[in-house]
């Protein structure tokens, strides 16, 4: 896979305009896990029709920020059409027509879906990841010019195993008042997430991969995860590999985050680490992310904290669209449309740097539409 994906990367770079190649990218290229097994969809269908993508606006701020993406895509004439579906987190299952659409288009852009706390209602987010085997969660947390933070030179990619661990959903009540929850770690899933992390580092000229664990306590489960990471690391001798215990990792993140490059984690740790890193680098409102499997991919706001948003943000229409706009740029690269991805990322970063249009979480008072209009103008 390494040789094939490297050739693709070179071709994408060679076809990108020189003035766009010179701009700094946060996410250059996401490996396609099933590239050798399943031929990916091309940006256009055989008859020249733009590429269809499933769109789930979701709950809370979701419709606001997904609408921003739709407007920007239309403004820059991106060869993408959206198949839009009304899905909400309080549903007991994802409707069949939605699943059929995702399995047909193979790519989905999604707003936040609220996850009910307790009550036995399953998370539709987890359902989608398991049903489509989206075993990779990737969140890129990085400083943006013009957005002051306590730390500089932060550019962390958190690659998290997305299908097992504490999120396996295997819980039951043994006797009244006693609940047993199972954490499942397998060698197969550990090896493939480690492979993805090292392949990402290789393709994007990253220097270090750090495995996050708690093997000092969970010696068998996290021990198996570490053993798998070590085996994969041997096949990438040019990339430095190290390990860190998750509690020390959190302390190091808030004190010296610039030491981290690519981080590979089991499911629960990755959720915590990604949100911590996002808060350090500028907030959850500006961090892109994607969920990728062998056949399918879903792109959404990278850090989950506040993903759905507060009612006042929805009422005043002041949700931050930056995270989903950058996630949609990641989606454009996945669709092999790097020129459009570069234009979108450059426009978003220009708006942030100029600082005239920012939502409340970034110290401004702009509405979602004002930020969207500014991005369209910057295109």
TrEMBL record:
**What Gene3D superfamilies does UniProt report for this protein, alphabetically?**
Isopropylmalate Dehydrogenase
The protein's matches in SMART domains, at most eight in alphabetical order, are given as:
Iso_dh
- Give the CC-aspect GO terms: mitochondrion
Subcellular localization, as worded in the UniProt entry: Mitochondrion
| Keywords carried by this UniProt record | Magnesium, Manganese, Metal-binding, Mitochondrion, NAD, Oxidoreductase, Transit peptide, Tricarboxylic acid cycle
Q: Which domain of life is it from?
A: Eukaryota
> One Pfam match, by short name?
Iso_dh
Q: Which GO terms describe its molecular function?
A: isocitrate dehydrogenase (NAD+) activity; metal ion binding
Q: Name one GO biological process term.
A: isocitrate metabolic process
> Where does the UniProt entry say this protein principally localizes?
mitochondrion
Provide the coiled-coil residue spans: none
Q: Residue ranges of the Isopropylmalate dehydrogenase-like domain?
A: 52-375
What InterPro entries does its record include? Isocitrate_DH_NAD, IsoPropMal-DH-like_dom
Q: What does this protein do?
A: Performs an essential role in the oxidative function of the citric acid cycle.
By sequence similarity, the record places it as follows:
Belongs to the isocitrate and isopropylmalate dehydrogenases family.
Name the UniProt record assigns to this protein: Isopropylmalate dehydrogenase-like domain-containing protein
